[in-house]
Design goal:
Elements (H helix, E strand, L loop, with lengths): L3 E2 L16 E6 L1 H4 L6 H9 L6 E4 L19 H7 L4 E5 L2 H4 L6 H15 L2 E2 L7 E5 L6 E2 L2 E2 H22 L3 E3 L2 H10 L13 H16 L5
Helix pairs in contact: 2-8, 5-6
Length: about 220
């Protein structure tokens, strides 16, 4: 089943949740691996115990905004958003795309703009367009044997600026988790990733707090 087209709505932060709101997580490995680490949903449900929120993780490792291959006869993200009647979509993209390099930022902005235009003009819940929040990539860190921060953070910083600009143009919310994760990684107290790019248990516990703060607290960075 495909959703009907509708007029987009403006998404502002902090998010205001309603009872029985249906929240979808979509995007790449950052969200996909959250299935193994329940920190964010725990924070969400604990903060809103009377709202009876529904949360579904529809992310898929390695997904890009316009490159989301699936096995034969498997529904795509749009079909799943429609099946779950999503009211709110929190989307994590930008990491895989950043490997194209600084020279492809203009193309990336075009791709992201087209994707957001489609995402924000569908009534997945059968009534209205969703609230949409775009989440940028986390920082990379240098760990023993992998200098991921040295290799990737410059590109990531440039792509994140583009993501923020496109999000503003499409009047959706944007949460920058790069700055806070970089600060934690630069402290050097503990590794937050398994390989410089993908979070470990401690990393996800910290990331959940950063994401929750960005979504729901006033004046969040």
């Amino acid at each position: 089943e495909r959703p009907k087209s509708t007029n987009p709505i403006i998404t502002k932060l902090p998010l205001q949740l309603t009872k029985h709101a249906r929240i979808a997580l979509i995007g790449n490995t950052l969200f996909d691996r959250m299935r193994d680490f329940g920190h964010f949903e725990a924070l969400l449900q604990q903060a809103h115990p009377k709202l009876e929120l529904v949360v579904r993780n529809l992310a898929w490792s390695a997904d890009e905004i316009d490159l989301q291959p699936r096995p034969a006869n498997l529904a795509d993200t749009e079909q799943y958003l429609t099946a779950m009647k999503a009211d709110i979509i929190i989307a994590a993209f930008g990491f895989n795309e950043s490997f194209a390099g600084i020279g492809e930022i203009s193309s990336f902005e075009d791709r992201l703009g087209k994707y957001l235009a489609g995402l924000t003009t569908k009534a997945y819940n059968g009534k209205s367009a969703p609230l949409v929040v775009l989440v940028c990539p986390i920082a990379n860190e240098n760990i023993k044997g992998v200098a991921a921060a040295d290799r990737n953070n410059k590109n990531l910083g440039a792509y994140i600026k583009s993501m923020q600009k496109v999000a503003r143009l499409h009047k959706i919310a944007f949460v920058n988790v790069f700055k806070e994760t970089k600060s934690l990684m630069d402290s050097g107290e503990n590794d937050l990733t398994i390989n410089g790019a993908h979070l470990n248990t401690l990393g996800y516990s910290q990331f959940a707090k950063i994401l929750f703060t960005g979504l729901f607290e006033k004046n969040a960075p």
